[in-house]
Design brief:
alpha/beta, Rossmann fold, 6-stranded mixed β-sheet, globular, His_Pase_superF_clade-1, PGM_Phosphatase, Histidine phosphatase family protein
Length: 215
């Protein structure tokens, strides 16, 4: 069977001095460190047989995808299915002010972590990302495709592919900034999943999507 690999790449660190949950808000760009992270992943994939680079429409994903595509003489296309997960607390600081868990007004949003009740259902995220991944696999058949998107949709897609429960502890996600989660296919069938962190040397002091430091 034809072997095809689809790499799901998480974007780099974002410039977010206010430490808010930016979610799908427009205009959030990579930090200087994030730009270096993007270059690290581009160099990591430079020798691979990449024939397609696609990204979430959000700026941080587009910026991360740009050097990857440039290394292969490709353009970056967009896929709305790769967008960040929707979240009720978008635009707020998690754990502070209007978004704090201890505020009784917010309890309804935390009522069902299995869905989850605060945002886009986990299974809907898996469905749309899996569809985008298989579309890329078909288009890049026999080669490699790169999809640049966001932490939670990547992690949920991996959990689903490996037959693990979607409900999880966010602190245990194996999906660092500019990490590469690679889905290997034999024909249309998943043959395995690999994971690597090309920008790991830049993690010290970096800030993740919710404002928490990685190290």
């Amino acid at each position: 069977m034809t072997t095809t690999t689809v790499h799901l790449v998480r974007h780099g660190e974002v410039h977010n001095p206010e430490r808010i949950l930016y979610g799908r808000l427009p205009g959030y760009r990579l930090s200087e460190r994030g730009e270096r992270m993007a270059q690290c992943v581009a160099e990591h994939l430079a020798g691979n047989d990449v024939t397609l680079v696609r990204a979430s429409p959000l700026l941080r994903a587009q910026q991360t995808a740009a050097p990857i595509a440039a290394a292969h003489g490709l353009d970056v296309s967009q896929d709305q299915r790769l967008i960040e997960s929707a979240n009720h607390f978008e635009g707020q600081r998690m754990g502070h002010g209007d978004a704090k868990l201890t505020d009784p007004r917010n309890w309804r949003w935390f009522a069902n972590p299995l869905r989850p009740s605060w945002g886009e259902p986990y299974r809907e995220q898996v469905s749309r990302v899996t569809a985008a991944m298989h579309a890329a696999r078909a288009e890049a058949e026999g080669h490699e495709a790169v999809l640049v998107l966001h932490q939670l949709p990547i992690w949920l897609t991996r959990l689903s592919a490996e037959g693990r429960p979607l409900v999880h502890d966010p602190r245990r996600r194996e999906c660092g900034l500019c990490s590469v989660t690679s889905f290997r296919f034999a024909g249309p069938h998943l043959a395995g999943v690999d994971y690597t962190e090309p920008a790991q040397e830049l993690y010290a002091g970096a800030v993740d999507a919710t404002g928490g430091r990685l190290t």
